[in-house]
Amino acid sequence: MAKHIYCRHSIEIEVPFFDVDAMHIVWHGHYVKYLEVARCAFLSSIGYDYNEMGKNGYSWPVVQLNLKYVKPARFGQKIRVDLAVVEIESCLRIDYTLVDSESGQKLTKASTTQVAVSLENGEMQFQTPSSWLEAVKRHRSFQTA
């Protein structure tokens, strides 16, 4: 059974020199940064960035991260990070695909899971706050399950 995708978002990044090793390929740890850049762009697009989360009384730590490297990204390469929001009610789960912008060739697949944690008492929320649900439903590509 295919996952339901609540919404999609994409961002393009040009691989900077300081992200590559001596062989001019992206060091594996920088892929996490690319996921964060894409996630922040998505959150900004719905008006619910990390500052807004805090104003609503929550932090959203990443509790799970998965990466599968398919082909290395290289210095100067333009890559597109496509994200798909696949869970919004009990957590924020996003699937990512990093591709070469020009050819569309897949470079990396990834996923992150974040949970809402109350800033007041530090307790994990087992249902996402209504402020989050209202914000994500504002995304231009939002589709109900």
TrEMBL record:
Keyword annotations: Hydrolase
Any Pfam family hit: 4HBT_2
Any one GO molecular function term: fatty acyl-CoA hydrolase activity
Highest taxon, organism lineage: Bacteria
Gene3D superfamilies in UniProt: Hotdog Thioesterase
Keyword Metal-binding set for record: no
Family recorded in the similarity comment: Belongs to the 4-hydroxybenzoyl-CoA thioesterase family.
UniProt protein name: 4-hydroxybenzoyl-CoA thioesterase
Organism: Neisseria arctica
